[in-house]
Amino acid sequence: MAQDATVPKLNFGYWLDKAIEWGQATTLESQKDVCLHLPQLQEFLHQLYEAIKHSGSTVAIQQFPLIGQLLGRLCWNPFVIGYDESQKTLMWCLCCLYSSEPQNAVELKANSWIRSLLCHLLSSSKWESNEAETSTFISALGYTSADYYCHLVKNMVVSLVTELRENQVNGLNIQGSVSASRVNAVSIFCVPLITLPDLTPLLETLLLYHGGSSKEILSSEFLEAVNEAFLKKKISLPESAVFSLWLRHLPSLEKATLHLLDQLFSVQLNSLEEVACVMKDSLLPQAASHPAIFRIVNEIFKNALMETDGTSGVMTIIQVFTQLFLQAHQNENKQHKFPLKAYFPYHHQPLVRGLVRRPCELPTTYWSQHLKHISDMLKALVEDTNVSSLTDLFEIWFLVACFGEWLDIAAEQLLKAGVESDAVLWLLAFYYCPKNENQQRTQTMVEAHAVYNHLMMLFSCTELSLKDLEAAVHRITGREQCWNQCLTTHLLTNFLLFSPGGHKIAQECIYHITKTTDTSKEVYNLLIRTTYRFNHSGEENQKTVKLLNELLQKLTLKV
């Protein structure tokens, strides 16, 4: 065998005969012959790849009808796949045979065979499955089986990554670039191997790779598998790769958002710091700096809010997410920062700018004036005759609700500072009762004024009893409408937190309210939001912080 003359270029029949003759190189004679022909074989494989790389699977098979038999036999020869770049070239040849859009059962079966062949090439377990000759070959190279597998995978990944990156400059494909069908095939081949740590650079390169086609070039199976592995913490990827994944595959973004909601609802989180930590770990607030991602996540949150009938827990999650998104947006490089209109394209922009201004960015002495400005703009919008549908009204309400930090401060400012109560009460009344059918909001304003006036009369008292707050408590425990009950609960809870006499009866009063009504979660979420704001605003009030912690400890058991 070793006496063969120089092989003619692309002598397909010659190499097929050789592959059949060698088999899996189980004899000493065949092993020697393989080794003598490896350089020529590699050259042949490279030429074969050049001949078929732009032809597509159908044309390639027409040109070389027995190409599958040849590649299949070579892939099972350990001496061939262990030599230099032969394994990589075999992979690229297989990619050319893969049908990205199979039209019949034959092409589907061929695709399945190609996938299994790649798994064999990269699977150490198959190399180590009692094949003494393979182990002998690996040992002869000075490696253990595990070392050999590790080096082989790393070299393969480096080679593929280099080739993909060299064919893309500044996001544009250059001449001779890898075809979309072959990139698609490589992405499919990665599916069963995604959790291999050595494969991570290739995953990142594929996720950041953009071909010239307007269609997605990576397979949906690959994108789904990467997303699933990332969500389950089986792989770690750079932020840029994760963001690219979500931008190019909407189902993955939707699944990541729903996964985050499941996480937040499946465990008892005792502080908004914990909620914020889980959110940041998901990378969704950071990814939301891209307007397309923000709008989709916001829409999912909106649907979750409607499906849960506007529960305070979901609303609190949305508000924390919005705060984290604003932080990420503000930290963006000015060159890459999108305008606010890109995130809220259909909303009144002056109102958006007013809500986006975070309280910590303004002096506390300016809060009341800013709240009045927001309230006035909102009232003008709501009472505009053009806002006729409930859908329009809901969209305005949801925008305001996302920036709930201002609503909590509104309830605080009513009691702590000299504010124009009508404007601030209207803002709160709109939040708790956005519709004004049958004068509902008007009635809510009347009720809110009555509660507010009563609480202000008692605000300076240092000695209070539950009986003093009987009128306000009755509006919560009595058969009041839900929106009146929630607004009164908000005002009363703030009164207990910030008035001198309220501290002393806070536990008794809140116990009475939550025992006789279903407001436990409402009060709990208000308290953790207040605690979170105190922790991040630098407000120094040790007495109030201590009271908040005591109340939260008691309420945790109820929710």
UniProtKB/TrEMBL annotation:
One of its GO terms (cellular component) is Fanconi anaemia nuclear complex. InterPro entries: FANCC (IPR000686). It comes from the Eukaryota. One of its GO terms (biological process) is nucleotide-excision repair. This is FANCC protein.
